[in-house]
Amino acid sequence: MTTPSTIRSFFLDGPAGRLEVLLNEGAPSAPCSAVVAHPHPLYGGTMHNKVVFHAMKALNSFGIPVLRFNFRGVGASGGEHDNGRGEVDDVRASLDWLHSEFNLPILFCGFSFGAAVGAHAACPDDRVQALAFLGTPISAEGRSYSYDLLRECRKPKLFVSGERDQYAPAAMLRELFASVAEPKRAVFVPEADHFFAGHLDEMRAVIRQWVSEVVIPGV
């Protein structure tokens, strides 16, 4: 399936002000919609991040409409950074918009901080059918993250990380993965760091394979 080329830039209503978004349009017969959440705002994370962009391209190649947004206080989005608390509500706002616009099952994808906060919005949401976590952080810059809710999250889950991820040592991520409810899949990209530098095509291929085998098999 070829990638649709139309991109819409607009704002949606968020809990702390409007959120700046980009929507890569999907095919008329799209099987689902998707949102991709970006890495930590205080360390340069935006919806234009390379990992976020490549994740979008992987999903959009199936004809899936993909929404990217800037968390509160990033770019032209209103509000201020809330240390991961209010950002969960930003993800919820994106899910609400996708549901109202397309009324399709939703695939959540998050990179780093986006994965950590997005899990708390996406796992309990019945509209979300599957979740992809890229560069899932365990401990970064003195911050720690909790993933206890994944023990009961029985939606299909993909974890993709580099074997040399500096914010989630492979041994620690494997321990977390072992505690997560089925169904689940983990892929560690050899030689890759947290940002998949030099390995973005491999990350993208992993996402595509999972989507084709688990999320929308037969499409």
Helix content: 25-40%
- At CATH level 2, the architecture is 3-Layer(aba) Sandwich
Beta-strand percentage range: 15-25%
Average pLDDT rating: 95
> CATH class, anyone?
Alpha Beta
Q: Write down the Rg.
A: 16 Å
Kindly, what is the distance between the CA atoms of the first and last residues, rounded to a whole number of angstroms? 9 Å
Q: Can you write the helix and strand succession as a string?
A: EEEHEHEHEEEEHEH
Number of helices: 5
Query: Number of DSSP strands?
Result: 10
Please list the strands of the largest sheet in the order they lie side by side.
1-2-4-3-5-6-9-10
The fold-level CATH name is Rossmann fold
Main features:
eight-stranded mixed beta sheet; alpha/beta; 219 residues; Rossmann fold
Short description:
Helix content is 29%, strand content 25%.
Describe the protein in words.
The chain contains five helices and ten strands. It has 219 residues and is an alpha/beta fold. The strands form two sheets. An eight-stranded mixed sheet has the order 1-2-4-3-5-6-9-10, with helices on both faces. The radius of gyration is 16 Å and the shape is globular. The model has no long low-confidence stretch (mean pLDDT 95).
What topology does this entry show?
Blueprint (H helix, E strand, L loop, with lengths): L6 E8 L2 E8 L8 E5 L12 H11 L5 E4 L16 H17 L3 E6 L1 H10 L5 E7 L4 E2 L2 E2 L12 E6 L7 H10 L4 E6 L10 H16 L4
